[in-house]
Design a protein that fits this description.
Lambda Exonuclease, Chain A, 5 strands, about 240 residues, 2 domains, binds iron/sulfur cluster, five-stranded mixed β-sheet, globular, alpha+beta
């Protein structure tokens, strides 16, 4: 999309808020053992995210997203609190640092250099559990979407990047799908082994993309376009 600016939409905005909410609350517990005030956070983040290029941010939709994000916030906060309490009660002589590092062993929005593999030098991994060596990738699934196998490629890419930088094996990926079904928060997980098959598939895809960039090739049209794509209105011819 040479020279064309992508346009935000409600799906992208909601996905951004999901990521920001989870990373904010987990980081607050990891660093300070405290739950930040949701309303203050929402007041700051929602104005940044909701409505950016969106065409359908009515008050009802806005309230629906707020409720959805609040449910995620509340559940993530409860799980963090519970993990810290469980760890403290199991090891009352542990230092606070020890409790935090082992109850919540997460590097959240971890910045990593992928240039050794021909990728960007500022990749951001949603979450890496360094005690269990699991890469987590958070996905917001809008109503009607289904988890697809290719989404595992993101985890595989992060795994090989972490391996290239830290020289440790990372063989397990987990995609956490977050969606809203009939107004209720739904969370499902796709836990999988990052074996030779998916590594080979990831390498093939990476090589194809590097070739497109290096040779300035036209990538052609995909088999399927998603209505959350930043360019959908342009491609459908609504926008000049
Ligand atoms: S709408 Fe389809 S063709 Fe257009 S940029 Fe998005 S994925 Fe590509």
């Amino acid at each position: 999309m040479r020279g064309i600016r992508g346009e935000g939409n409600i799906h992208i905005s909601t996905g951004n808020l999901v990521h920001k909410a989870v990373s904010n609350i987990v980081t607050s517990f990891v660093e300070r053992d405290e739950e930040p005030d949701f309303e203050t956070w929402w007041g700051r983040e929602a104005s940044d995210c909701i409505g950016l290029g969106a065409h359908d941010t009515s008050q009802t939709i806005h309230e629906g997203i707020k409720r959805f994000i609040w449910d995620i916030w509340r559940q993530t906060g409860s799980q963090c609190k519970s993990a810290l309490l469980a760890r403290r009660s199991a090891q009352p002589y542990a230092t606070e640092r020890d409790v935090h590092a082992s109850a919540l062993p997460f590097l959240v929005e971890h910045k990593i250099d992928g240039s050794l593999l021909g990728l960007s030098d500022i990749l951001s991994v949603d979450c890496f559990d360094y005690l269990h060596d699991i890469i987590f990738d958070l996905k917001y699934l809008k109503l009607g979407s289904i988890p697809e196998l290719w989404r595992r490629l993101h985890c595989a890419g992060y795994a090989v990047t972490l391996e290239s930088v830290y020289e440790i094996p990372v063989d397990v990926g987990c995609i956490v799908y977050i969606s809203q079904v009939r107004g209720e928060l739904m969370i499902s997980r796709d836990l999988f082994f990052i074996g030779d098959d998916i590594r080979g598939w990831w390498l093939e895809e990476r090589d194809k993309k590097l070739e497109i960039i290096a040779q300035k090739k036209d990538p052609g049209l995909p088999k399927r376009c998603y209505d959350s794509c930043l360019y959908i209105r342009y491609c459908l011819g609504d926008q000049k």
